[in-house]
Amino acid sequence: MKQKLLFLSLLVCAHAFVAAQTIEECQQAAERNYPLIAQYDLIQKTTDLTIANIQKGWLPQITASAQATYQSDVTAWPDAMKNMMQQMGLNMQGLKKDQYRIGIDVQQTVFDGFAIKTQKAVAREQGKVQAAQNEVNIYNVRQRVNEMYFSLLLLDKQIQLNRNLQQQLSGNEQKLASMVKNGTAAESDLQNVKAERLNVEQKLVSLASQQRMLQMMLSTFCGMEVKEVQKPSLSAAASQHAGNLRPELKALDAQLGLINAQEKALNAALLPKLGVFAQGFYGYPGYNMFEDMMSHRWSLNGMIGARLTWNIGSLYTRKNDKAKLRVQREMTETNRNVFLFNNNLEQIQQNEDISRYRQLMANDEEIVALRSEVRKAAESKLSHGIIDVNDLVREINAENAARVQQSIHEIEMLKEIYDNKFTTNN
């Protein structure tokens, strides 16, 4: 029977241990649950579609057209030549002023001056910039989780201390009830302690309400039920890594990558382009103008060839375009320096707060121990009639306040450590 009870106790303890969520688990769950997480897939799909569209620039470009025109004048034989041919029995009607054409034009790029390659590179870098900015927005979720997590830890500790305080007051209440029964204490003393215990119970109701609210908020934020949170160990929390890995820096690097890609696209715009083409149409007149001047018939006509083009129009704006990219690069570097400057100020403040809490905690244990001894002495003095109940209640509250202050220092220091982790992403 004892073995069964021991086994059940271990199961309960194991379940309680598993149920407690660590801060890292909550952060990861919150990031996965945050609606912006879907943006990664959407950004990737948009980038893939954009690149696929750019890649289609290598496909033959086919244009179908149909036109009908009426001209004020057309190519014609000189009158002397026309009269001479009429004398020879040839009727040279000349071209008609109404002309028709239905045709297809096919062009195939052979060399595009690396325009398609650079455009795809720009599209990829734009996708990286969007993904990096999305990572920045999702990363800020951690700070909100930290606020709720450590507030919940502090409430858990305060509830525990509140219950301990209730036990102390209840124990003294029982002693005073016995003393009142024996005539060694007044009824008012018993009522004083009882009123203090009820006051502490009221505080517990408020603390429990705040605890439930935070549990629901954190559970909603993480997308899972969070009933209990686990206090991080001081040694694990204090571990640090060198360097600053904030996603904002990655976003700035992505912005610089986009600027570099855009600069290469400017260079590609200066290169000549080579392509082949084929044109065909059915209509009147065709390419044989002499035959069409004699016979007004529709005909099939075609042409193939190669075309080398070199558009130097980009030279007109190249200097200004390069200057704009240079300014954007300088602005990005300035934003990096500003971010690192402000980030360093945050680290200085956080490190100083951590050091301050360490110094405060150095005496917390001794203060609690001393307050506990004073409270025990007050209980002994009350039983001997040396002090009154008000003195005892004051010492009990002083001990509880010391314990609350100790827990506040510890949890606040843990929060500052994790805020510092957030500041450097370490």
Write a concise keyword list for the protein shown above.
alpha+beta, four-stranded antiparallel beta sheet, two-stranded parallel sheet, disordered N terminus, 12 helices, 426 residues, rod-shaped, Outer membrane efflux proteins (OEP)
Polypeptide structure, described:
It is built from 12 helices and 6 strands. With 426 residues, the chain is of the alpha+beta class. Strands 2-3-5-6 form a 4-stranded antiparallel β-sheet, with no helix packed on it. Strands 1-4 form a two-stranded parallel ribbon. It is rod-shaped, with a radius of gyration of 43 Å. The N terminus is likely disordered.
Largest sheet: 4 strands, antiparallel
CATH class: Mainly Alpha
Strands in their spatial order, largest beta sheet: 2-3-5-6
Which structural category do the helix and sheet elements fall into? alpha+beta
Could you state the order of secondary-structure elements as H and E?
Answer: HEHHEHEHHHEHHEHEHH
Radius of gyration: 43 Å
* Multimerization state: single chain
Q: pLDDT average, as an integer?
A: 89
Query: What are the low-pLDDT stretches, counting only 5+ consecutive residues below 50?
Result: 1-18
